[in-house]
């Protein structure tokens, strides 16, 4: 019988500037490895941001303070930590990223973005527009010289969102303590075209049903 290769029990996330990856997870709460990624950026002097919804932003702030001994008031005043939330459309959300990370271009440290999109949260775009936003993050990362890690909770999200968002939008995927080059990744231009067509079809269907 062939010996099976043991699966790693821990994971360190290292992303180069311009990288866009997803982390699929099943444990309750934000995975520690994702918080490590954000905290290391803050401690290293990089502009670091968390894009999430209200109560989750508060939880991440508390964990950075209590578990990593990060002085939130100080790092936020210095612009090393920024908390972002959803806007009514993806264009405004991208503008927030540009404003946040353009300030860090003078730094030698590449910015870090940790993302937990607010699917069906009030004040956020609908699922289709959020998928378009996520698919364009690869382009945004390249333009602004930052790395982005997007969180996908496999316990809470349906299979369609996990596949289209967690897999099709990201060239790199972290799952089950392993780093995977993603064979399901779809080039952003093609995925944008497909998502735009689906969005138009959904709009026509809603108009017909109203």
Task: Report a brief summary of the structure.
This protein has eight helices and seven strands, in the order βαβααβαβααβαββα.
Description:
The protein is α/β, with parallel strands linked by helices. The protein has a single domain (20-209), classed as P-loop containing nucleotide triphosphate hydrolases (Rossmann fold, 3-Layer(aba) Sandwich), CATH 3.40.50.300. The protein has helices at 32-43, 54-68, 72-77, 90-102, 127-135, 137-144, 159-167, 188-209, and strands at 20-25, 48-51, 81-84, 112-115, 147-153, 172-175, 178-181. A seven-stranded mixed beta sheet has the order 3-2-4-5-1-6-7, with helices on both faces.
| Shape descriptor | globular
As residue ranges, the low-confidence spans are: 1-9
Structure classification = alpha/beta
CATH H-tier superfamily: P-loop containing nucleotide triphosphate hydrolases
Task: Report the count of strand segments.
Answer: 7
Largest sheet: 7 strands, mixed
Total individual domains: 1
- Residues in β-strands, percent: 15-25%
